[in-house]
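Look over this today:
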Amino acid sequence: MTEAILLVGGKGTRLRPLTVHTPKPMVPAAGVPFLTHQLARARAAGVEHVVLATSYLAEVFEPYFGDGSALGLHLEYVTEVEPLGTGGAIRNVASRLHSAPGDPVLIFNGDILTGLDIRALVDTHRTSGADVSLHLSRVEDPRAFGLVPTDDTGRVTAFLEKPQTPEEIVTDQINAGAYVFNRSVIDTIPTGRPVSVERETFPGLLADGAHLQGMVDSTYWLDLGTPQAFVRGSADLVLGRAPSPAVPGRCGDRLVLAGADVAPDAKLTGGTVVGSTATIGAGARVDGSAVLDGAVIEPGAQVRDSLIGAGARIGARTVLDGAVIGDGAVVGPDNELRGGIRIWCGADIPAGAVRFSSDQ
């Protein structure tokens, strides 16, 4: 296995304001852009060549990762002029692949944090003789996902998109966003128009009698599509619950990047990460949160399960719980923001202006 496609073109609408200036895969998780973790895990599994299918803020990726040599990879970038969907994005980068028609190509969604055994998925694909193999994960509540029932041999029997009624929920196995395609299958996806791999490509292949194999791997798996999930994923990377060779330091209760200034009596817990040039003031308490580069947490502030954007400032004695603060925003002293509230980039909240906010 030497090649992979990473789908990193989404707008990250559910993650705003984190994605106003930054594409979702480039938002820092555990101190580095989330995409770094995916690339590092692919390389550890033997992947050498990765094509990034970009679209939204496409110009951000290449200046950061370059040709990929720093990660031991050969990276290429293909930008969609118009959004093409997951299947269309895969087809759009096919010309950059070097694989022969019968060779396997790994494909990853750019917003999934997982402990998937990548080599095992490729081995399953090869030994089963499948045309496409899918990583499946089991979840307690599958209503927000696409269900993928399989027979006793793991062969996929149907695709059920986001079922709602009990009768529709025939399995707890969901499409976990990682696939192995035979190169020849990629070449059958229509060109020049949007194609959903979940709603069109997979059901179409199944209807045509293709062999689609599922591999259940219920190790760590998290869809980072919401701010709350992203914060949790970052903390899990720091804590070592989610595996990644790209965490820039030892796993533990906290990760403080070089150049950060943390007061001696500040308390950082729960997988908190403090970015470069960020400042944590005296007596501050930060739990399970991500404080991005250049942000300031003033003395006595309490921050829990929150993300503080680059260059943002949190005033003294302010309490944040489950909040997302956009880049450059200022939350003055003595505020209390809870329950999933999002503060937009560059916003300025005066001292004592907000005492509580429920889910937004």
Notes: The chain has a mean pLDDT of 91. The longest helix spans residues 227-239.
